[in-house]
């Protein structure tokens, strides 16, 4: 007969209702040393949670596992279920519940990520307005958020502390903890219909008329429709839009969940990028500079879209070793050099020329085909 293990959440030094009786009746108690010291009865066999095996639990008659807060929320419940252990769970208040309660904030818009993979966690914090990161050093998170305007709320044994990233980066933290990263610390979000997510609405590859742009200097909808799946934007990734122009590609990637960094040297175009990002309620970090001057200070991307710049810019983009690079080329003269640069850096190179004709109305009410300037799109993956 399979043994059912009871997992009990611990809130500080408090057990949930029924927890004390369950622990006192156990013949094996598993947990962190602080939990064992507080709650394991004298004389009962104990094991540290980090070294426990499924066989240890299944060999006991009445095994109990002690864990912080709600053990089913990014906790030990998943680990034990993956080992085939049958469980009963008595949850306590989670660390996230305590943190948002301490600052009087709703939690239904908070995206929650595991801080074990710091790069992915950082990119979610760069993209979303409210992100809780579990088990992370606040100083490391703060350093990685340099260049993004964020506030951090850090949960410690003394309560919740709110600070900017500079202050958090300058402190020594005793151990990894829970950090809430906020774009605007004092803003209360409007009510949504789905917790912890921002559903995509309206599709993608919008018309050029849906973006503020100058003299047609905007990546066409057809090019964006092809480029987006090659860039593969999504939560946890960072995309560079180089020679961003109006920022149409940057905004579309941000809408799909990526952290996005737009590099553009023209100050008026930078203002347009900000306006377009604001229109679609996404966060795009704008770097007003030549890429070659700024590249050494920028976080490494997962994907790069090159919409402008010469061969030196392309070589610089190749040097950052992104997994995906997409280059839009109005001139066919640069196709061979682009393919060569990507292939020499170890990318598998593909490409195509986009020649589109759109339906347009004639003065008499008829319909004609209006040609769109052809663009060659070259991409590399590795």
From TrEMBL:
GO biological process: cobalamin biosynthetic process; methylation
Pathway(s) served: Cofactor biosynthesis; adenosylcobalamin biosynthesis
GO molecular function, one term: methyltransferase activity
Sorted UniProt keywords: Cobalamin biosynthesis, Methyltransferase, S-adenosyl-L-methionine, Transferase
Pfam families noted in UniProt: TP_methylase
Domain of life: Bacteria
Regions that span the bilayer: none
Protein name, UniProt field: Precorrin-6Y C5,15-methyltransferase (Decarboxylating)
Organism: Actinocrispum wychmicini
């Amino acid at each position: 007969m399979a043994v059912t293990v009871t997992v009990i959440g611990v809130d500080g030094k408090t057990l949930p209702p029924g927890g004390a009786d369950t622990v006192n009746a156990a013949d094996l108690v598993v947990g962190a040393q602080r939990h064992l010291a507080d709650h394991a009865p004298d004389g009962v066999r104990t094991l540290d949670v980090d070294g426990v095996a499924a066989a240890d639990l299944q060999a006991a008659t009445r095994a109990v596992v002690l864990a912080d807060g709600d053990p089913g929320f990014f906790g030990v419940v998943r680990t034990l279920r993956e080992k085939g252990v049958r469980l009963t769970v008595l949850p306590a208040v989670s660390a996230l519940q305590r943190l948002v309660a301490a600052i009087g904030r709703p939690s239904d818009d908070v995206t929650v990520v595991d801080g074990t993979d710091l790069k992915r966690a950082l990119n979610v914090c760069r993209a979303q307005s409210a992100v809780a990161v579990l088990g992370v050093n606040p100083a490391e998170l703060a350093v990685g958020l340099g260049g993004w305007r964020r506030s951090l709320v850090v949960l410690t044994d003394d309560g919740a502390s709110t600070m900017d990233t500079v202050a958090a980066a300058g402190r020594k933290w005793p151990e990894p903890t829970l950090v809430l990263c906020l774009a605007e610390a004092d803003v209360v979000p409007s009510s949504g219909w789905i917790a912890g997510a921002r559903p995509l609405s309206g599709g993608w590859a919008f018309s050029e008329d849906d973006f503020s742009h100058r003299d047609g200097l905007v990546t066409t909808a057809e090019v964006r429709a092809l480029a987006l799946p090659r860039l593969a934007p999504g939560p946890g990734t960072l995309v560079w839009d180089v020679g961003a122009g109006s920022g149409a590609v940057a905004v579309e990637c941000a809408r799909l969940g990526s952290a996005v960094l737009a590099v553009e040297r023209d100050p008026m175009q930078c203002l347009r990028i900000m306006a377009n990002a604001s229109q679609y309620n996404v966060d795009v970090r704008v770097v007003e500079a030549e890429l070659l001057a700024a590249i050494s200070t920028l976080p490494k991307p997962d994907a790069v879209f090159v919409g402008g710049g010469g061969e030196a810019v392309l070589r610089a983009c190749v040097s950052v070793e992104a997994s995906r690079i997409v280059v839009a080329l109005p001139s066919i003269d640069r196709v061979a050099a682009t393919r060569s640069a990507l292939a020499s850096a170890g990318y598998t190179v593909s490409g195509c020329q986009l020649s589109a004709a759109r339906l347009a109305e004639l003065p008499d009410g008829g319909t004609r085909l209006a040609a769109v300037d052809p663009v060659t799109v070259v991409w590399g993956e590795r």
